[in-house]
Each structure stands twice: as structure tokens, then as C-alpha cells.
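Page 37, continued from 36.
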């Protein structure tokens, strides 16, 4: 069993051509249905953050938690929000603000030395959402890290053996969407004991369209 670029491109073209026209730009999503997975075991609880080859068309909003020079680099590097250690401490007793941050931003980076404080302050809010910050060393290129995070997606198994995430928007080139989709499948495949044999079906869809099955 294998996934061929031609089959993915064919499905992407079909779903875009059949999608009803809307007054907004629709997202494209991949749906991976799994089989023979024991969700009670650690290997059956898949949660992966995947860096895509292309920005999905809806750039992730990145929040950086840092101080001093690293905070300045983050601001210059394109972070949507930079939080200082003082700001972080003020969040400790404000669960409402914590939840707002968790829903307003797609990804988080934190200065490596601040990770323990971040975990203590916001771990209970960010952890279950799969948004715990990646550590940012003092010498790191903040701009590069922010750019990489801007094109990441998270897939997570919840109550059913199904994984789903955005891979683009309908105004993107078909090839870019296909490459994003294949990057997601490749990462998931690497986490499965039997690879693609654990995939029962694979679909691509737009926000408002019916799913189109991709041939395996």
C-alpha cells in the first residue's frame, strides 16, 4: 500500500472543482481514518505537531514568552505577541486571560530558562490543547523559529481513531496543498505500527464540501 502524488493531486483538483462557492476562502483539510489501533495504549494516542512545506494560507499566530534581547528579537522576527516574565507571573491567577491566550494564538515559543515557570503558570491550559511552548535557546534565531511555527499543524487522536487537520486554502496551488497533505500522512505513517496498512481511508475536503476519497 502506498500514497502516490498523482492520486493526491487528482483528489485535490476534484474537491476544489466540486466545492460550493462561498463568500469566504475555504480551508482544505485532510481526514485520516485509522484501523487496528488500540487507543488505550500509548502508541494509540497520537499527537503530533507537523511542520508543513508550505504555509496553509492562514498563517499561525505565534506568541513568544521571553525577556531582554530575545524578546526584542521575537518582536522583530514577526511574533504576534511577546510576553515578559512579569506578564507571565500576572497570568498565574487569571485563568480567564490564560484561556483567551490559548484560544487566540496557534503556537507558542518560550525562552528555555522560562519553561519551568511557563509549565507551572499555564501548563494546565496549554497542555490539553497541544500548545505547550517549544523552548527557545538564548542564541536561537527567533525569526526562523517563528517562521517554522507559522506553518505547523497539530494532529491529535481524541475519542475516535481519526486524525484531521488543515493543509491549505482553496486559493493555494494544487501542488502545494498536495505536498502539505503528503507531509502530514508521512508523519502519521511513521507513528503507526503497520504504516499505511493502519489507514482504513484517506479523504480531503473543503470547509463546506463533501469529502473526496484519496486512493491508496
Amino acid at each position: 500500500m502506498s500514497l502516490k502524488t498523482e492520486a493526491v493531486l487528482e483528489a485535490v483538483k476534484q474537491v476544489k472543482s466540486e466545492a460550493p462557492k462561498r463568500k469566504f476562502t475555504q480551508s482544505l483539510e485532510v481526514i485520516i481514518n485509522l484501523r487496528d489501533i488500540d487507543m488505550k495504549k500509548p502508541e494509540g494516542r497520537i499527537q503530533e505537531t507537523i511542520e508543513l512545506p508550505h504555509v496553509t494560507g492562514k498563517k499561525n499566530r505565534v506568541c513568544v514568552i521571553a525577556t531582554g534581547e530575545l524578546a526584542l528579537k521575537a518582536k522583530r522576527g514577526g511574533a504576534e505577541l511577546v510576553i515578559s516574565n512579569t506578564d507571565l507571573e500576572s497570568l498565574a491567577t487569571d485563568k480567564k486571560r490564560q484561556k483567551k491566550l490559548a484560544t487566540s494564538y496557534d503556537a507558542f515559543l518560550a525562552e528555555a530558562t522560562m519553561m519551568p515557570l511557563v509549565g507551572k503558570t499555564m501548563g494546565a491550559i496549554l497542555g490539553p490543547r497541544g500548545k505547550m511552548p517549544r523552548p527557545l535557546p538564548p542564541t536561537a534565531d527567533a525569526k526562523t523559529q517563528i517562521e517554522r511555527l507559522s506553518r505547523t499543524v497539530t494532529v491529535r487522536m481524541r475519542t475516535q481513531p481519526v486524525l484531521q487537520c488543515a493543509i491549505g486554502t482553496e486559493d493555494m496551488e494544487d501542488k502545494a496543498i498536495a505536498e502539505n497533505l503528503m507531509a502530514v500522512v508521512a508523519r502519521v505513517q511513521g507513528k503507526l505500527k503497520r504504516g499505511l496498512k493502519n489507514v482504513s481511508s484517506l479523504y480531503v475536503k473543503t470547509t463546506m464540501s463533501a469529502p473526496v476519497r484519496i486512493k491508496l
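The chain has a mean pLDDT of 91. Flag for discussion at group meeting. The domain at 62-149 is CATH 3.40.50.790 (Rossmann fold).
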